[in-house]
Amino acid sequence: MSPLSEVDRVAIVAKCFNEFIIGLKLEFVERVGRAINVAFETAQNWHRALVAYHNSRQGTPLETVSSSPSYRHSNLYALDPHRYMRCVHMKLALIGVGQAGGKVLDEFLAYDARTGADIVRGAIAVNTAKADLQGIDRLPKDRRILIGQSRVKGHGVGADNELGAEVTEEDIDEIQGALDSVPVHEIDAFLIVAGLGGGTGSGGAPVIANNLKRIYTEPVYGLGILPGGDEGGIYTLNAARSLKTFVDEVDNLMLFDNDAWRSSGESVEEGFDAINEELVQRFGVLFSAGEIAEGSDVAESVVDSSEIINTLKGGGISSLGYADVGVDEPERDGLLSRLRGETDVGIDSTEATNRITSLVRKATLGRLTLPCEVQGTERALLVVAGPSAYLNRKGIEHGRKWLEEQTGSMEVRGGDYPRRGEGTVAALVLLGGVTNVPRVKELQQVAIEAQQNLGEITDESEDRFAELMDSDGELESLF
Ligand SMILES: Nc1nc2c(ncn2[C@@H]2O[C@H](COP(=O)(O)OP(=O)(O)O)[C@@H](O)[C@H]2O)c(=O)[nH]1
Ligand SMILES: [Mg+2]
């Protein structure tokens, strides 16, 4: 970090004051108290954005910084009050491949609609099965791309992932054409979602990742769903082969294991709906962390998209943990109430600290999207979300340190995500680059056995069929 020059400091103060006045003017008509809050927060935010950007540029003069195209394309520009400080959170182009990919994509769109998170800046669904594409409610028709029509006539590839990969390759131009309408300058990353046990998603997702990596500079992430153990050998074999391929094509592969999330009792479809909600709640909190919506709280150390990108940077496989607890949302704790000393009324700070540390433990040691050993994780990110009065800095720091001990990693980031309206404090733990994953080892083992069995069964049944048709040379074919 380089120190700010005197000129820069003056420029920042001037700009902040300017925003303060604009904020005042904007809101004066409504209510003076709210105006001061908004102006104060705006100034704070912009100040933070400029200083952070200045530091990241290592001393580039501020004037050059604020007018340069790279600043305008940076996430921090999104904090600029002229854009009404809309977001520093992750903005994604989402590509759902196959049936599971399409349904999870749909659930992400539902999450955005419900919370106003605005994660998804572009979305397409790709499938070989026409019926599956029709089932995606929230995506416009022209964003649903049917591939492989000449080969499978809209009926899907069964669970043949080699065929899935082939037809995706053949129709890659059509997929690319649909992506041309995605505003790539607005996104931070691509996210390709697919179930790895089937045919289309399993085979197609790695092909699409490979293509995106060749064209764009933005990171390409995968979100892969592993099949349940009871789905059978073919699904396991598909998943193991797809996993091996997919992980090499993406910048990071986040995994969700259906086997660990199986819910009993319900039908498979209802079960999947419930699982998809759980899945999207986790990834939704992760990707919307850093969102600063109109009039929201301002935090001490807000997580932003660059921290997620850095945690995912080293590649490999990642897993997510999550835990939350209900709390009463306090009234807005803005400047006026702070001046009146009302900020923490009713919120005990020791209690807030303990709440957070216990949530971090629960999130890490409870059910992860991909069950794995936490020890040996290369990088981690802790996000604590909730009303800002509950986001106690000490708690977050304790949680982060604990996570450092548990993972043995030197690279554990932590921060808060102030948000209102959910009525919860939540801890989200992203384990980037997990190395000790018994489930993956098991999957490979079962897949190898399934592959051998399949080979033997094919050989055997060929023999048996030959025996069945054998007439000791007494009968001749017609031609
Ligand atoms: N979590 C989740 N998994 C699903 C869903 N639908 C299918 N799957 C899983 O995804 C795998 C692939 O199935 P599917 O997506 O239908 O295959 P595809 O259409 O050929 O890509 C299966 O092995 C299931 O485990 C879903 O809605 N949610
Ligand atoms: Mg299916």
Give a nutshell description of this structure.
The chain is built from 18 helices and ten strands. The chain has 479 residues and is of the alpha/beta class.
What does this 3D model show about the protein?
The protein is of the alpha/beta class. The N and C termini lie far apart (83 Å). Helices cover 50% and strands 15% of the residues. Helix 6 (130-134) links the parallel strand 2 and strand 3. It has a 10-stranded mixed sheet, sandwiched between helices. It has 3 domains: 6-83, no CATH class; 92-287, Tubulin/FtsZ, GTPase domain (Rossmann fold), CATH 3.40.50; 302-432, 60s Ribosomal Protein L30, Chain: A, CATH 3.30.1330. The longest helix has 32 residues, at 438-469. Helix 1 (6-28) packs antiparallel against helix 2 (32-56) and helix 10 packs parallel to helix 11. The protein has helices at 6-28, 32-56, 62-67, 69-73, 98-115, 130-134, 149-152, 161-170, 172-179, 200-215, 233-249, 258-261, 268-288, 305-312, 335-339, 349-365, 393-407, 438-469; strands at residues 92-97, 120-127, 144-146, 189-195, 220-226, 252-257, 317-326, 379-386, 411-418, 424-432. The structure holds guanosine-5'-diphosphate and magnesium ion. Magnesium ion (MG) binds at residues 99, 198.
